[in-house]
Amino acid sequence: MGLDYALDLGRDAFFTAFIISAPILLIGLVVGLVISLFQAVTQLHEQTLTFVPKIIAMFGAAALFIPWIATQILDYSVKLFGQSPW
């Protein structure tokens, strides 16, 4: 296995992990921003108000995106094991 092949594998693994985690993290970001705006407007600064809706939204997003995530992982696995370093 050459250095170029190892770097390509690492880059593809990093990119796949980024693509898989992006939708769930973006939903958590949007929910967090909405809750922060709500807290700023109402001046209600309860710590649990930040975490509980964000966790629920991220679990819901994970459940919603499971088929897509599984497809992405399967495609990456087929690509990974279908390649030959020689």
Please, could you describe this protein's structure?
- The protein is an all-alpha fold.
- It has one domain (3-82).
- The chain contains two helices and no strands.
- The protein has helices spanning 3-42, 47-82.
- It starts with a helix and ends with a helix.
Which SSEs are present, and which pair or pack?
Elements lengths: L2 H40 L4 H36 L4
What does this entry show, briefly?
The chain has about 90 residues and is an all-alpha fold. It has two helices and no strands.
User: DSSP strand (E) fraction?
Assistant: under 5%
What is the residue-mean pLDDT, rounded to a whole number?
Answer: 88
Unreliable spans: none
Rg on CA atoms, Å: 19 Å
Q: Termini, distance in Å?
A: 7 Å
Total separate domains: 1
Sum up the overall morphology in one term.
elongated
The helix content, as a percent range, equals: over 70%
> What are the secondary-structure elements, in order, as H or E?
HH
How many H/I helical runs?
Answer: 2
- Let me know the number of strands: 0
Task: Identify the notable features of this structure and list them briefly.
single chain; 86 residues; mainly alpha; 2 helices; elongated
